[in-house]
Amino acid sequence: MKKKQNISTILLHIVLIIGACIMIMPFLWMVLTSLKTVSESTSMNPFIFFPETFQWENFQTVIRQNDFLRLYFNTFAMMFFRVLCAVLFSAMAAYAFARLSFPGRNFLFGLVLFQMMVPAQIFIVPQYLMVDKMGLRNSIFALVFPGLVSAFGTFLLRQFFMGLPKELEESARLDGCNIWQTFWKVMLPLTKSGLVALGIFTALFSFKDLMWPLIVNTNSDAATLSSALAKISSAYSVNYPQLMAAAVLAIWPMLLVYIIFQKQFIEGIATSGGKL
Amino acid sequence: MKNKVSKKTRNEWCWGWFMVAPTIVGLVVLNIIPIFQTLYLSFFKSGAFGKGNVFVGLENYKTMIQDEQVWYAVRNTLGYTCLVVPVTIVIALLMAVALNGKLKGKGIYRTIYFIPMVAAPAAVTMVWKWLYNSQYGLINHVLNSLGIEKMNWIDNPKVALISISIIGIWSTIGYSMVLLLAGLQEIPRDYYEASNIDGASKVRQFFSITVPLVSPTLFFVLVTSIITAMQVFDVIYMMIDVTSPAYNSTVSLVYLFYNNSFKYSNKGYGSAIVMLLLLIIMIITVIQTKLQKKWVNYM
Amino acid sequence: MKRKLVSVLLCAAMITTLVSGCGNKNISSDEGTKKAEESGGDVTISYACWDSNQAKLIQTVADEFEEENPNIKIDIQVNGWDDYWTGLEAAATGGSLPDTFWMHSNNIYYYGSNDQLLDLTNYIEKSDQVDLANYPEGLGEIYNIDGKQYAIPKDYDTIALWYNKTLFDEAGLAYPDDTWTWDTLKDAAKKLTKDDKSQYGFCAGLHNQEGYYNFVYQNGGEIITEDKKSGYDNEKTVQGIEEYFSFVKDGLSPEIYDDQARAEAMQNGLCAMGLFGSWNLSGFATTDFMKENFDCAVLPSANDGTRSTIFNGLGNAISATTEHPDEAWKWVEYLSSKEGQERQAELGTAISAYEGTADKFAEAYPMFNTQCYIDMVEYAQIRPYSNQTSVWEDKAYELLKGAYAGKEDTKVACEKTAAMMNEALDAE
Asked: If you compute the radius of gyration of chain C from its CA atoms, what whole number of angstroms results?
């Protein structure tokens, strides 16, 4: 019995490792390309996988040409405020949609779903006009603006709230908690992993958001990592190694955020489940 | 008594409205108004820079129905969705379950499977172009050594959509996996312990405990994955140019909308295309919401 | 309770940061301008463009301009081609276009005819530094709508034949020169093509400006007639396109549809020759591999000796809504003056449009036969354009690619293209 379990664990590892190789390929390729010369990067015959010598100057050039400190700051500020707004407002709305009954609930939730169905590209010009009217182009606020509320987050957390047992809040209400206290003290902590997932995705989506920062923040010192990256690659003949070096420099903060937060899954609700 | 209940109810109403207010106000200003502007614009032959729009009634819609490229785009968009969503969700669910247990190194796996989501689109495109390259690409290299004939993965109209879908699957597995992992955390451990005592097999546990209890999250993943897939644009835009022979067999509705609205400055027609897309997505989503009662298990 | 307090405090702190982030760390150019004005009459002029290689060089010109005009600051903003136009469109709709920016022949009509651009006619008349007679014929005209001049030529670009010297040496062939004709090109392409498809003689990608347009005009055909009708049904046009496509049909060129793939096919030695515009120079010059192995030559002539190349020029335009038209004009005037144009050529940004200044550009790239780009202007053809060029240009690709891949008769495809194009032109 024990042996059989060992074999299945090993098999699982093999499958996961093969999958991991496929998933990590582009990242590996990015790192390797960032250390190649231009001709190595496009060479196909012979097929060059490892650079002959590591071209660290690709990184030096990219760092010299871009104010990365400024880019990191702008990007983190944008991510931070978008995550904050998304988590806070979405959790509130999601709880109301999941557990409170009030007139217009279904209609309003329909609006939330409706927003998600529309391709984001149609919002760019109208939202630009709003920011422009406020005179806030080229600011951190402009970067945060489209992410002030999140239909995605509202829908996601609603699903999490709906998955929680009803008895919990009923007992909280019997203990004399009002609606807000029940939400804030009892229900919110229970959806921690949902909140973390939402935080990760909000951070990720704002990190990857390209067109908006490019168009609303035209000044180079108000750019984000991805918009600056897009500008590097906009030259007619692409210098792949430098582009990839910039991409590597841009990626690690996001990976770091993920690695830190995914731990929350393990320590999250799983243990408290037993106490119910 | 009656009076007391209604006071309590009113209290709940007020809290409800208060709690949804920030989100709803934000959505209306940021998104809903622009959507109706788009709908409005779809009845116009758009002038430049928002001025000089000429009302043409249903003209844009008539043109759209006769435009065979729009129907190619509908077919491609639906095809892409059907290829990507089921595969992604099945793999992601299995992966999430595997990585939710006491497996050694699960943190590393979780991180690695998430990496494709973090990679910049420009880098992703370049890597896949390199993998797919018909002359010396890695995939053809491997196929060749297995004795299978080389293929033109990107420019061959017959396989291009599949190639694009593979990229789609690869880059969205992480998304579904993380959400499902989060959903799995909500399942109380004692459910499994109880069924262990009953001697239920792992497979049975999966279908009788895991799937029903993770179903609210699964429903969310399904709905959002379909919507995201229906709005596919970036990868196709970067991989397939209008010059490519595979253009007609890969162009998506959002791609067509983008070209018409931004490249050809024909905003009215672009808006009509968005409305078509919106209609399709709405139909699919409404069907899903109706069907959820059959399989989604809310507490 | 404690947790609640902490979170409230945290929220308060964050909101303060956000607000102050907008206030104190304001990086808005408008704000900057206003503040500067209060303190001493300084004005910031924004200058938007889409080529990051050139932007780096123009920064030097801007620095020098700022030194001479201490009350004007130039703020250069770069975006890639697609985002540039999307952003410009949004800005124009909101009435907040950059003060000065690049204009292209594909878009001039859209912006010019809709009152987004400042009419420069009077400024030019009054100026002692700018005279449209100093620019190659046709370039200034691109930016003239009903007698009003909306932009001043900044540069021009032509197309040349690039070749891999190493591959030519291996094959023992003489490098391309001005004696080459279509036949010489084809012969060389045959000799440079290897049977195992590991090397092709020519890179005939599906591209108009850096591709079949050149062959069309060399053959005496045309893409658009003077009275704005399609030239695709012209027999000579069809012949030119057929000649270009024949490289693919004869197996002398791979089928290439993607813009970047064309440059890559040269860089990795897949193709020995290819057509590239002069705007590629600043990029090519930064790659050691290109510098060592490549050079360029004038385009081969048609077999009857007719020469042609497609040329086009960008313009500097001023926004109609700029708050500082005089300062903006000063900057554009400097960029268009003999001095400014010479400086840009020296730095190697692009082939300056001002007559006589272009030679300096050749000196900026001594590693290549850059002069050939300038020599070709003599017989160059303006890139075909109409009021909404990109609409029919894209559709033309869609209709021609079947013929390009050898699946359809070129003549039939051209006739379809002509019908489509005439319809599009009528709708303008």
From this structure: 25
CATH number of C43-156+313-354: 3.40.190.10
Report pTM. Answer: 0.87
pLDDT digits (tens, 9 = 90+) for B107-138: 888 888 888 888 777 678 777 887 887 776 77
Give chain B's domain count. 1
In this prediction, residues B53-65 reach a mean pLDDT of 92
Higher pLDDT, C150 or B147: C150
Q: What are A203's two structure tokens?
A: 């951070």
Q: Tell me whether residue B132 is in a domain.
A: yes
State which residue of chain A sits closest to B26, comparing Cα positions: A149
B276 with B74: CB under 8 angstroms? Answer: yes
Residue B5: Cβ within 10 Å count? 9
Chain A interface includes B295 (CB < 8 A): no
* C-alpha A227 chain-centroid distance: 16
The domain spanning residue B125 has which CATH number?
Answer: 1.10.3720.10
Report DSSP letters for A37-69, one per residue. -HHHHH-TTTT--S-SS--THHHHHHHHHS-HH
Which amino acid is residue B191, in one-letter code? Y
When CB atoms are compared, the residue of C75, C87, C288 closest to A219 is C75
Q: Burial, A74: exposed, middle or buried (Cβ in 10 Å; 0-12, 13-18, 19+)?
A: buried
| CATH number 1.10.3720.10 given to A62-273 | yes
Residue B230 lies in a domain: yes
Whether B155 contacts chain C with CB within 8 A? yes
CB atoms within 10 A of CB B8: 10
Cα torsion angle, A123, A125, A126, A129, sign: positive
C221 close to C240: Cβ distance less than 8 angstroms: yes
In whole angstroms, give the CA distance from residue C64 to residue C74.
10
- Domain(s) of CATH 3.40.190.10: residues in chain C: 43-156+313-354, 159-311+380-427
Q: Alpha-carbon distance C410 to C417, whole Å?
A: 10
- pLDDT, one tens digit per residue, over C39-97 is 446 899 999 998 888 888 899 999 999 999 999 999 999 888 888 888 898 899 888 89
Q: Are C22 and A233 within 8 A, CB to CB?
A: no
Quick check: C321 contacting B, CB < 8 Å? no
Residue B43 resides in a domain: no
| B188 close to A276: Cβ distance less than 8 angstroms | yes
Bridge-partner residues for C342, per DSSP?
Answer: none
Helix-, strand-, coil-residue percentages of chain A, each rounded to 5: 80, 0, 20
* Residue range(s) defining the domain that contains residue B270: 67-295
- B27 within domain boundaries: no
| Dist CA A125 CA A216 (whole Å) | 9
DSSP string, B206-229: IIIIIHHHHHHHHHHHHHHHHHHH
Domain C159-311+380-427: CATH architecture, name and number where available? 3-Layer(aba) Sandwich (3.40)
**Cα distance between residue A255 and residue B101, in whole Å:** 23
Is C13's Cβ below 8 Å from some Cβ in A? no
Domain map (residue ranges) of chain A? 62-273
Q: Rounded CA gap, C354 and C156, in Å?
A: 9
Cis amide leading into A46 (omega within 30): yes
